[in-house]
Automatic annotation (TrEMBL):
Domain of life (superkingdom): Eukaryota
GO BP terms in the entry: carbohydrate metabolic process
Record keyword Hydrolase present: yes
Keywords: Carbohydrate metabolism, Glycosidase, Hydrolase
Species, as recorded: Monosporascus ibericus
Protein name (database record): 3-keto-disaccharide hydrolase domain-containing protein
Length: 530
């Protein structure tokens, strides 16, 4: 992804962070850092609403579908995500985009670039990088996964450039051939990022096969310039570089980011370097994003969002859901990116939240025939008609955690509540898990912590209300080792404390009992130290 100097940020509530921010202007030089609007030479005005979240408030992934390699841009008061369609190479013949005014509600723009509009591309259309200049919108992309021996055999591939009159396209091939169609300094021509510096000079950073190059782009954005020594490509490969170049600028510092490890494996991750020059040198500082066995695997190939006029930043990236077995299937996410006082990047924490503000339940898995919906920013089950408990879970695998949720019993006796450390789930509501639930019935109400094993439910501890139908309660569960605590509204005084070892690790979610309707919101699951 190519950006210049502008910040972006996100922050979210319910006791844990979730962040996102907004900005304005439309050049790629605006995407990352304190965007200097090149043509006017002025800072963009501050956004009307500061998107200060800690992670994607409405949940990660933040859009539906299989996507990877998310690049970002900010055009005309909208945040844009340009990803790779994540499937087998032969099916990667088009690119979609997504736009949002608030980093919560996203509009899909389908097939903004297709192989039909690129005469030389026929597969593996990867890692788009977007930028705007001279009233036009440019999309740089890799195609055909070209290898050295294939080039020698006369096959064509590499990095192309397409142009459009609007951010959503349609984009058409600008030059009829690859902009970079060969290996220079050992770098495979893929995974490009385009960046316009404050002085107006545009650069393209790219490379696979463990080598990275930078080259100048001319003002026309469709041809390459040369450096003072007459060369076109300069190698900038840092330690452990594999692919996924990304450049941003913040406070006059150039941050070069890249992906390490194999894209199909669990060790895929993001590292970075800092420099006082766009040409480096780039000395590896540290790894800042990697998999979390409780949240997702293979987290890498990042972009960056900066909320214009702020120092709020988000890292966009793809990852693989824990239960996904197809290596080609990845999803795109974002989390907050913070900096230390010395401007070094802090390690990224992948947070798990969903406030359902987008009206969707992306990433949730339901069990049974009940129809779950999102209504007024609450996950809702109208009525569980059969005799089984109805489960909806996230693809997580927490052992120790702090789990928050908002629970409302709408009708029926209950129970309704949070499930955790869930395994062996079935459509009949069977499985193994703990459940912290609220029940409201004619004779009174109660809070119960239960242990469920293969359809058999045992009450571990129960305390009386008062709880009433239609009221929303903030329930928090903390689990560290064999100690489990359940809080309601008063988060300093647990209502239930037990010691138990029946279930040690598993998914988190929500549950509703027979003949009951309920609503859930403000879901947040985090490691105890997060």
């Amino acid at each position: 992804m190519g950006i210049s100097s502008a910040p972006l940020n996100i922050r979210s509530g319910f006791g844990f962070t979730t962040g996102i921010d907004v900005g304005r202007q439309s050049l790629k030089q605006i995407v990352v850092g304190l965007l200097l609007f090149k043509m006017a030479g002025t800072f963009p005005t501050a956004p009307r609403a500061v998107l200060d979240y800690t992670t994607a408030k409405a949940g990660n992934p933040f859009v539906e579908g299989w996507y990877a390699d998310p690049d970002t841009e900010y055009y005309d008061n909208l945040y844009w995500i340009y990803p790779t369609y994540s499937d087998v190479y032969e099916k990667q013949t088009y690119m979609d985009a997504f736009s949002s005014p608030d980093l919560i509600n996203w509009t899909k723009h389908s097939s903004i670039l297709t192989a039909a509009n690129v005469s030389w591309a026929h597969k593996a259309m990867w890692a788009p990088a977007a930028i705007s200049r001279n009233g036009k919108y440019y999309l740089y992309f890799g195609a055909n996964d070209i290898q050295v021996d294939e080039i020698a055999a006369g096959l064509v591939g590499g990095i192309g450039v397409a142009v459009a009159d609007k951010p959503e396209g349609p984009y058409v091939d600008a030059i009829g051939e690859p902009l970079i169609g060969n290996f220079y300094n050992g770098a495979q021509p893929i995974d490009q990022d385009v960046f316009i510096d404050d002085d107006g000079q545009a650069y393209i950073y790219y490379g696979g096969h463990s080598h990275a190059n930078v080259a100048k782009l001319n003002d026309d954005m469709v041809s390459l310039g040369t450096f003072d020594d007459g060369t076109t490509f300069r190698e900038i490969t840092p330690e452990n570089y594999i692919e996924g170049s990304q450049m941003i600028k913040r406070k006059g510092i150039y941050y070069f980011m890249w992906s390490e490890g194999g894209w199909g494996g669990p060790d895929y991750s993001v590292s970075y370097a800092m420099s006082d020059s766009p040409l480096g040198p780039f000395k590896r500082i540290s790894k800042i994003l990697q998999q979390d066995g409780a949240v997702a695997r293979g987290s890498g190939h990042n972009g960056v969002i900066n909320v214009p006029g702020t120092d709020i930043w988000y890292i966009t990236y793809h990852r693989r859901p824990l239960s996904e077995t197809d290596g080609n299937h990845r999803v795109i996410c974002y989390d907050r990116m913070y900096f230390n006082d010395d401007d070094a990047v802090k390690n990224i924490t992948m947070l798990v939240k969903d406030n359902f503000a987008d009206g969707k339940m992306i990433g949730w898995i339901t069990y049974g025939d009940a129809e779950w919906n999102v209504v007024d920013q609450r996950l809702t089950l109208s009525t569980a008609e059969d005799d089984n408990w109805q489960l909806a879970t996230l693809d997580t695998n927490f052992a120790d955690f702090v789990y928050d949720g908002l629970i409302t019993v709408v009708a029926g006796d209950g129970p309704a509540g949070l499930v955790f450390r869930a395994t062996d789930k079935t459509a009949e509501g069977y499985g193994s898990y703990y459940a912290a639930t609220i029940e409201v019935y004619k004779q009174g109400s109660k809070l119960t912590l239960s242990s469920v094993s293969d359809g058999s439910t045992s009450t571990m501890e129960s305390v009386n209300g008062p709880f009433v139908t239609g009221a929303e309660y903030h329930v928090r569960v903390t689990a560290v080792g064999n100690e489990i605590k359940v809080f309601v509204d008063d988060l300093g005084d647990p209502k239930i404390t037990v010691q138990d070892t029946a279930h040690s690790i598993g998914a988190s979610g929500v549950v509703i009992g027979p003949s009951t309707s309920a609503r859930f919101g403000g879901i947040s699951i985090a490691h105890p130290s997060s």
